[in-house]
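Before we proceed, please read the two lines closing this message. Report back on whether the structure tokens fit the sequence:
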Amino acid sequence: MTNTASIDTPAAAGAIIRARRQERGLSQQSLAQASGVSRKFLVDLEAGHERAELGKTMAVLHALGLNLTATDPMPRGSDYDPARRDYAETFAQLIGSRDFEFAIKMLADYATASLNAGRPLLQRSPRLKDPHWSAALAGITNYTAHRLGQPAPSWTRRVKPLNEAWMPAESYRNVREPMKKLTMSETPAELAALNVFIRERSLATA
């Protein structure tokens, strides 16, 4: 019979991860390298840090042969499958409701889903009224196409560069000057060409 344990707190997750790591004779550094995370992240995770990133946590679990099990059936449909999501409609709704913080998270979701799918998922223009977000999506589409060694969809060539430099993060919060400079220096060329600035590390993990 397989033993099961309820993971209902960050501390419980950290304890299970630490126990499995020690059981396998792994150091924190070796597990961090195998998972593609920093040793500091793993230290915080094992200590039950409440703000550990889910994606990185899943990578650690995978490296240890662990997984999360849900008692409810997995939801189905395009809303729960990034590869099938209607990103044009998603962004139209988010921007229309001025939910800019979540819209920025969805930019990264779009980039990662496109890289995982092996093609830019927005093959047709999203037809957004806001030129800033149109430019952001065109830039990310070009970025993913370039990383995949594919031609970018033709609609991206119709999107003109913004008149002034724009950072999506400024839609909902103040960005300090040092972070602006760092962001501009780490923005992929495909986005910078459209005067949109997002750090590459914020776009995709694929």
